[in-house]
Amino acid sequence: MDKGKHYFKGGVSLKYLAGAANASVNIGSLNGAINYDAVKDESYLTNASGRIGLNFGGINISDFEANDLLSFKSTGVGADIGFVYEFRPDTASLRNEWGEIRRDMNKYKLRVGVALLDVGGISYTRDLSRSGAYNVHIGSTQRFYLSSLADASLDHFKDTLNKYPQYFTEDKTASASSYRVSLPTTLQLDVDYCVNNGFYVNGAAQFDLTNSSNSIGNSQYYSSFTLTPRFETGGFGVYLPLGSNALTGFTSGLSIRFGNIILGSGSILSALGGSKQADFFIGAHFGSKQKNKAPKQHVSNDSNSSSVNQ
């Protein structure tokens, strides 16, 4: 929708989700002590209590054939939805001699984008031979040597726990026939402001909306916020991202674009000061830039004249 100074567009994507496998191991409220046995040269867990949850669905992670990956027995639906609003106070100066807005120039003073991504999930049939819940009870005089878990594959973790019923008691009531795994749902907010003559300030935020308390197997993104001042033209750009996220805290970086090549880092400056995050990226854009449309031509002929009108 294009109404004078106001421009709006939106979109929805619907997804059919097909899952091949899912596996999760959760340790909750674990309290205990890990000590070292110098005689056996091994570590052991003692005086411990807590709970272990196992959820498995689909193919075996540790033993499958390539064609098993296309055996989608677990399905679901998902969606993305979003919109962009642009405030264009001076589109008249961006029009070419034929009255068309030039496609190679920025049109907005302010742009706001909002998107809800990865809504939905996949339902899995629980494999009871691999899934279960266990209560941990290791007394102060007992020892569970951690080497007992060294050779336990993910799909046979339950078999390993069953070998030690004196330490791990299975909860038979936790045997639901199915469970649901949500997509890592996020709310994305992006605000871009044109200061003047190639100078911009961008603010981007990501909010995690996944409810991990209902399902221990839900994947999720960390919430984050980034403020990026930048200067850019058609052939050059420099960007200074200043960010903060729930995992690594404050980050600052530097990126440069030369034509269609961009390289930089979202955390190189903060990494020099001992940040928990370090990254680097390089990218290339292939293809021609947008060009203005050629003027439409109208040719008229009659018995007395021939003319071309643009």
Descriptive notes:
It is built from two helices and 21 strands. It has one domain (2-221). Strands 1, 2, 5, 6, 10, 11, 12, 13, 14, 15, 16, 17, 18 and 19 form a 14-stranded antiparallel sheet that branches. Strands 3, 4, 7, 8 and 9 form a five-stranded antiparallel sheet that branches. The chain is mainly beta. The longest helix is centred in the middle third of the chain and has 6 residues, at 157-162.
Domain module tally: 1
Q: What is the global morphology?
A: elongated
Structural class: mainly beta
The fraction of residues in strands falls at: over 45%
Question: Cα-atom Rg, whole angstroms?
Answer: 29 Å
Query: What does the average pLDDT come to?
Result: 86
Percent helix, as a range, is: under 10%
- Work out the helix count: 2
End-to-end Cα distance, whole Å, is 28 Å
> Strand-and-helix sequence, N→C?
EEEEEEEEHEEEEEEEEEEHEEE
Poorly predicted runs: 298-310
Note the main attributes of this structure:
52% strand; 14-stranded antiparallel β-sheet; mainly beta
Helices, strands, pairings?
Elements (H helix, E strand, L loop, with lengths): L1 E2 L2 E14 L1 E17 L4 E17 L15 E14 L22 E16 L6 E7 L5 E2 L11 H6 L5 E3 L7 E5 L3 E11 L2 E10 L15 E9 L3 E4 L2 E4 L3 E4 L1 E5 L2 E5 L2 H5 L8 E4 L13 E4 L4 E4 L1
Antiparallel strand pairs: 1-2, 2-5, 3-4, 4-7, 4-8, 5-6, 6-10, 6-11, 7-9, 11-12, 12-13, 13-14, 13-15, 14-17, 15-16, 17-18, 18-19, 20-21
